[in-house]
Specification:
The complex is a heterodimer. Chain A is mainly α. Chain A is globular and about 70 Å long. In chain B, α3 packs across α15 and α4 runs parallel beside α7.
């Protein structure tokens, strides 16, 4: 490409003098066009994203009083942060519970969605329908509809809704199963963990739509040659899964992991987010900003840590 | 990499060849000479291939039921008379059907005008947003410039940082919208009052900063990266500038991805109630109406008496049905573009 331009220049040098723009080297010109393409977004990002972000950081160090079109600020140091962690009754407690919740939920969602994606990637009748159904939560669950549904199903009178699912997998069942297997008196916490997992299956399924999609697309990008070679060598489905599938989709496991963690942290129905929102509606902007920034600093730290740990094991095909 | 079609042909050929071989062996009276390992492998495979489909069906059926459960619940509650909610003999199929709930909810939500208003807001914001996000994504996908990595970090940040953090400064900006003092020149130092107008949604969309814009930019970047470079090179050689190339060559080639992003944009604008509730004070969109439905219902149907959520279920569920029906209908007809668009985009690339 660049050679083409160069030869053109070599052939007609007089024309080049007349056209001013042509004097800029090709690479530089392309870079300028690159800036031109992202210029609209860059202006918007500075005005609608970076500036509000910095402003909210400033609010978090100040006492705020909204006035006409601006904020009256009074320097407050790190008092808001101190209050959030030391004085607020709920903040630290909710923070720990949300972190714990996410730590429990994320691996479950990932394993579940890999499992479903592998199934949906097989060829069978009704596959299109099944895919459509599994993706349905993405369409519906983002809105206020979900809150109403969840609320209604739990207050729904008769053994309604998500409780009905829970009863299907009630503690007794887990205990009985363990007893049946000849395992007695295993620690309470184990049965409890199993019970929380099974009773939460509704939320698990409903929050893994995007992840399933990500894994499906990753599975379809596994080269056919790898599949063929494994078949030739007589790999069982189990071996195939661990030695071919997992390495090939490992970059997407990282992506899905980040997505799941972010999704769970910023979910407006989790306790910390609700706490932050109540501060917003009572006009405590400075305090709210401090809580939000502390929360997202922790989230960012957690994300960075997870990504650093996982990315060592990610396999990239060169 | 083999394409889907080649894969299919290959599988077919393999099957046919195996069959022919078996037939021939039978004809000649030779028994296949297999090692015990091979026999075991074949047997295991045969067992798996008969049992697995049954298991797969059970698993998928169960999971599909879990996902569809709220929808079924919604449909069966919203078409039954309110009294039958308390009838213990009814769980799924009501004794009689009625449209009254839907009608009353329609009136409470003023669904006709609200839906039209929401569609207007959605369509304009989504169309603008798709256009600007595509431009940005193309810039990131195909040009080398200084600071590209750093700028792309901003895009990632836009995905990760929730809108709740930036809403209040945005609100202040919109109450007296006055970037660089441009508007104060016209009406005496006040700036434009944009709160409660559609501009609070259109303006960020116009600058590729609307709802989930970061994600869309990321998607477009992946789409454009996947297209062959020769396309543009040909256009450049024929004398097209980069913008003309983008419009004439790249956009038609990425048409299906445009549709995918557009659909997602519509869905997210439709479902959003946080941004709209912050910037639009009246209950202007379906999402907002739904959010406030239980209080408006109590006011309209029960004269502001305190009513438990249990008594409101039929109406609340009718509201849910009304609110999701446009999106659901769109999804049923365009389902292919939602799922396959993402899959084919090479999100993985």
């Amino acid at each position: 490409m660049s050679t083409a331009v160069k030869t053109e220049k070599a052939v007609k040098p007089p024309k080049e003098k007349r056209q001013k723009g042509m004097r800029i080297p090709y690479e530089r010109r392309k870079a300028l066009y690159g800036y031109a393409f992202i210029a609209i977004w860059l202006i918007g990002a500075i005005y609608f994203f970076i500036m509000p972000l910095i402003e909210s950081l400033i609010y978090s160090f100040n006492l705020t009083q909204p006035t006409k079109g601006s904020m009256n600020l009074e320097w407050n140091g790190i008092q808001h942060y101190y209050d959030a962690f030391r004085k607020d009754q709920h903040y630290s407690q909710y923070l720990v519970s949300v972190l714990g919740d996410t730590a429990l939920k994320t691996p479950l969602i990932l394993i579940f969605s890999i499992f479903v994606a592998v199934i949906l990637n097989q060829k069978f009748r009704g596959r299109v329908f099944a895919r459509a159904v599994f993706f349905l939560p993405v369409i519906i669950a983002t809105g206020p509809v979900m809150e109403i549904i969840n609320g209604n199903m739990s207050t729904g009178g008769y053994q309604g809704g998500s409780e009905q699912f829970s009863t299907l997998f009630e503690t007794d069942l887990v205990d009985q199963l363990l007893e049946f297997l000849g395992i007695y008196g295993i620690s309470e916490s184990l049965t409890e963990t199993i019970t929380t997992i099974t009773s939460d299956i509704f939320n698990l399924v409903w929050s893994s739509g995007i992840q399933i999609l990500i894994f499906l697309s990753a599975l379809q990008n596994i080269p056919f040659t790898a599949k063929e070679a494994a078949q030739m060598e007589g790999a069982t489905a189990w071996e195939y899964f661990w030695k071919i599938t997992i390495p090939y989709i490992s970059p997407m496991i990282l992506a899905a992991l980040v997505y799941t963690v972010v999704d769970s942290f910023v979910d407006p129905s989790n306790q910390v987010m609700k706490l932050i929102m109540t501060q917003e509606s009572s006009w405590n902007y400075g305090y709210m900003a401090a809580m939000a920034w502390a929360y997202f600093a922790i989230v960012g730290l957690a994300l960075g840590l997870i990504a650093a740990l996982i990315s060592k094991h990610v396999y990239y095909e060169v | 990499m083999a394409t889907k079609k080649e894969e299919k042909i290959f599988a077919k050929e393999m099957k046919a060849a195996k069959k022919a071989k078996k037939k021939e062996m039978k004809k000649l009276g030779i028994k296949p000479n297999l090692t015990p390992e091979q026999i075991r492998y074949n047997r295991n495979k045969a067992i798996l291939s008969t049992v697995w489909p049954i298991f797969r069906f059970l698993i998928l059926f169960g999971l599909c039921f879990i996902i569809l459960y709220p929808l079924i619940f919604m449909i069966t509650t919203s078409f039954r008379p309110n009294e039958q909610m308390n009838d213990p003999s009814i769980i799924w199929i009501p004794k009689s059907l009625t449209l009254d709930n839907i009608k009353e909810t329609w009136q409470t939500m003023k669904f006709g005008s609200t839906a039209l208003n929401t569609i207007k807001l959605n369509l304009i914001a989504s169309i603008i947003q798709v256009g600007t996000c595509a431009l940005t994504g193309y810039g990131f996908a195909r040009f080398k410039f200084k600071g590209k990595g750093l700028l792309f970090v901003i895009v990632i940040l836009m995905i990760i940082v929730p809108p709740q953090i930036t809403t209040i400064p945005m609100y202040l900006k919109f109450t007296y919208f006055n970037p660089l003092g441009i508007f104060s020149m016209f009406n005496g130092g006040e700036g434009l009052h944009l709160i409660d107008t559609g501009w609070t949604l259109y303006l960020p969309a116009l600058f590729a900063n609307g709802i989930k814009a970061g994600l869309f930019i990321f998607l477009f970047r992946q789409f454009f990266k996947g297209l062959p470079k020769e396309l543009e090179d040909a256009a450049y050689l024929d004398g097209c500038g980069p913008f003309k190339t983008f419009l004439i060559v790249m956009v038609p080639n990425a048409a299906s991805s445009f549709l995918t992003v557009f659909l997602f944009s519509i869905v997210w604008y439709w479902n959003d109630y946080y941004m709209t509730s912050s910037f639009l004070n009246d209950s202007a969109t379906v999402g907002l109406q739904l959010q406030n439905l239980s209080s408006t219902l109590a006011a309209d149907l029960f004269n502001n008496q305190a009513v438990g959520p249990r008594q409101l279920i039929v109406w609340l569920e009718s509201g849910c049905i009304l609110a999701i029906s446009p999106i659901l209908i769109m999804y049923i007809f365009l389902q292919k573009y939602f799922t396959e668009g993402i899959e084919r985009s090479g999100l993985t690339g």
